[in-house]
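PROTEIN DESIGN WORKSHEET
SECTION A - STRUCTURE
LENGTH: 220
TOKENS:
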């Protein structure tokens, strides 16, 4: 019997979710629990994908000051003056630990119009209007156009953006590897539930070994 969800090493892209300054800085009202702790492993994943010249996609949030594009649960707060993830601000930028060397600042106008901003060779940023990276974005088309079948996922805010992105990827028949120690605020139960979707769980060390061809995906 063929296992259709087994990750394919040579058709893999990395997806990072919500790795922006406002989700990490200490005084931020939307600070993600434990985000700083996972950054070294996220960096290791990024370095490996860059060395392999494999595609990298960074999903980001941007909140218009009038709240018009903000999730319902936060819209009132933004309308009343909450200033986080504002287009053009430093808080909306990718973390320094994540940005490739020499990358430009985010082009909020292009991103909000649905365009993908190339910030390095084989590396793009795109805006997601809600929690999941596939909702009303061009991510699926971009992956299909490049022959990508497998997504390796890391990032902030597992209960919201990261988990929603994993569910959406599985629903679109992508093979998914979740880097369990490179996603912040992930509970053991939440991670175990992903197995029911057919997602593979790997630590960063195991995933890096798999990408290098020194470990089988079945060991996840």
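SECTION B - SEQUENCE
RESIDUE ASSIGNMENT:
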């Amino acid at each position: 019997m063929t296992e259709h969800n087994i990750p394919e090493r040579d058709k893999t892209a990395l997806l990072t979710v919500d790795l922006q300054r406002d989700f990490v800085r200490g005084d931020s009202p939307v600070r993600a629990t434990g985000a700083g702790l996972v950054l070294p492993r996220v960096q290791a994943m990024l370095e490996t994908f860059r060395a392999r010249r494999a595609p990298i996609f960074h999903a980001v949030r941007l909140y218009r000051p009038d709240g018009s594009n903000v999730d319902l649960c936060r819209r009132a707060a933004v309308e009343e003056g909450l200033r986080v993830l504002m287009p053009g601000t430093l808080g909306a930028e990718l973390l320094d630990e994540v940005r490739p060397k020499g990358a430009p600042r985010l082009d909020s106008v292009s991103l909000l119009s649905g365009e993908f901003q190339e910030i390095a060779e084989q590396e793009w940023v795109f805006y997601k209007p809600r929690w999941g990276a596939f909702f009303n974005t061009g991510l699926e088309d971009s992956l299909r156009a490049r022959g990508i079948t497998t997504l390796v996922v890391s990032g902030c805010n597992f209960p919201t953006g990261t988990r929603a992105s994993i569910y959406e990827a599985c629903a679109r028949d992508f093979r998914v590897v979740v880097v369990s120690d490179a996603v912040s605020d992930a509970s053991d139960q939440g991670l175990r539930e992903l197995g029911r979707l057919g997602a593979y769980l790997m630590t960063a060390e195991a995933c890096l070994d798999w990408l290098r061809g020194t470990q089988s995906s079945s060991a996840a």
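SECTION C - NOTES
The helical segments are 35-52, 72-79, 108-112, 139-145, 158-171, 188-194, 204-211.
The radius of gyration is 16 Å.
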